[in-house]
Amino acid sequence: MAPSAPATVDELGLQGCLYLWALLTGQEHRLPVAQTRRMTLVVMAYLLERGVIEVPWPEARWDVKPDARTTPIEGLQWRLIWTVYEPARLIEALDDYFDSLERDDFATAQRLRLWMELGSGEAERFFEQQLVKHRFCADWAQDVAFAYRESTAVLTLAQWRYCAWAAVRRGASMALQHGPQADGLRDTIYQELRRRAATVASGAWTGCSFPPYNPQPESALGRGFVHRLTRLGALYWTGWPSVEVLLGHQLDRSQRVGGP
Question: Would you tell me how many other CB atoms lie within 10 Å of the CB of residue 171?
């Protein structure tokens, strides 16, 4: 075990426990660990820095590592090196930790920060899907993270999905008129994304919300947040990330809901 490895799940903390739960659950149930590959790498880097897992980076894979695991969707190798808990009982220890969390200001602030972080990932994932659907470069999806961060008002995740859909449609219209290699196409999509977000936030338009048909998050990270840290349900998509919403839908010790 690395010298800096946490001694308990409490020492690993709320974010670290959620990240580890997502990594283990994604492995067990064949789920994406996080909303995007980039966010999965963030999750793994966080656990790596805390001495919980080992990864082959900068190499893509280990040549020989019998106990290495590979995330089933992203195809990323990792190895559990945290030996404080028996591997078979680690999920149980994490669940016990989540059950023990208090509903104090600090824990609520942590939940809110995670909701915002996950919201950016969900928006990026949906944006990527829309870009690929219209044969644009999938790498442009990371632009939504800038729009999300720079937005002066808080939108729901469903509203960000609408903005992503509308921005890509604007780009598709431009591509039809001027060709798929038109100058400024990526920036046009990005500026439309920002414009839509600002207009929706102002309240000038109503009904601009695209919640998914199935409110169950696709990723293990999203499911962990909804089922282990809160009882938001569909409000994960349609609620404004705020302390007020969380205070009404935080999980207490007797309210753990199903999952993953």
Answer: 25
